[in-house]
Automatic annotation (TrEMBL):
Gene Ontology molecular function terms on file: ATP binding
A Pfam family it matches: IstB_IS21
UniProt cross-references to SUPFAM superfamilies, sorted A to Z: P-loop containing nucleoside triphosphate hydrolases (SSF52540)
This protein's name: AAA+ ATPase domain-containing protein
Record domain AAA+ ATPase: where: 85-221
């Protein structure tokens, strides 16, 4: 079957073609889907977990990082800034203090600022599970893609069971991002001394240099919200 070019017919079509030509639009050009048919933030919402789709980067240090990355972005083909090189963040806190909330909030804030953004997010446990060698799966290609991604979230680093293999995978991933100075958002429940035991000295050393540490404290937000729901239910 041959593709046939559409031919304008009649006076209305000719006038329309004339208007389009005057506006610098080729009336004979094939129609194609736009590269981004919906706003970037709306597109990202489909990839952000439901619990964090309204997340806001309201911690001063995280908000400052967002501004720094947005201002350092290189202009793209349409003028919008894109992720370039930049500092990373190590977001540390006990369970329920909002680390993951801040990380996804940072992504949403960058998109709201008009930054062109290719990003990925994974937990440490999911990372190792996905890259573990198995028939029919190219874990090496996926590791390289994560290592090159302009912005990467690694959630709960140090929470998965460690081994020589997980340490080597983490080293290869972090080392590539360290060398290329690619922004990375890392969250962990562990202090650096404990984290070092889980991921090794080589990874911990690079994280120390490449990241600014953000410490979140306070009560477990999940337990606080659960207690508030119970209080409301009891008084209803």
């Amino acid at each position: 079957m041959r593709d046939l070019d559409a031919q304008p017919v009649g006076g209305i079509a000719r006038r329309l073609a004339s208007i389009l030509t005057a506006r610098g639009i080729d009336p004979a050009a094939r129609l194609t889907d736009p590269a981004e048919p919906i706003p970037a933030l709306q597109a990202a919402q489909a990839r952000i977990p439901a619990r964090y789709q309204a997340a806001v980067a309201d911690h001063p240090a995280v908000a400052a990082w967002v501004r720094e990355v947005a201002q350092a972005g290189r202009p793209g083909p349409e003028g919008a800034p894109g992720i370039a090189q930049g500092r990373s963040l190590l977001i540390v806190g006990t369970t329920g203090t909002g680390k993951t909330h801040q990380a996804y909030g940072a992504v949403r804030s960058l998109l709201l600022a008009g930054v062109r953004l290719r990003w990925k997010a994974t937990t440490a446990a999911d990372l190792y599970a996905e890259l573990r060698p198995r028939p029919g799966h190219d874990g090496e290609r996926e590791l390289i893609d994560l290592a090159r991604c302009p912005l990467l979230i690694i959630d709960d680093l140090g929470a998965a069971k460690s081994s020589e293999w997980t340490e080597e995978i983490t080293m290869r991933l972090i080392n590539r991002r360290y060398n290329e100075m690619l922004p990375t958002l890392v969250t962990t429940n562990l202090g650096m001394a404990d984290l070092r035991q889980h991921i090794g000295d080589r990874v911990a050393s690079r994280l120390t240099e490449m990241t600014d540490k953000v410490i979140l404290d306070g009560p477990d937000r999940r337990r606080s919200l659960a207690a508030e729901r119970r209080r409301i239910a009891a008084t209803a």
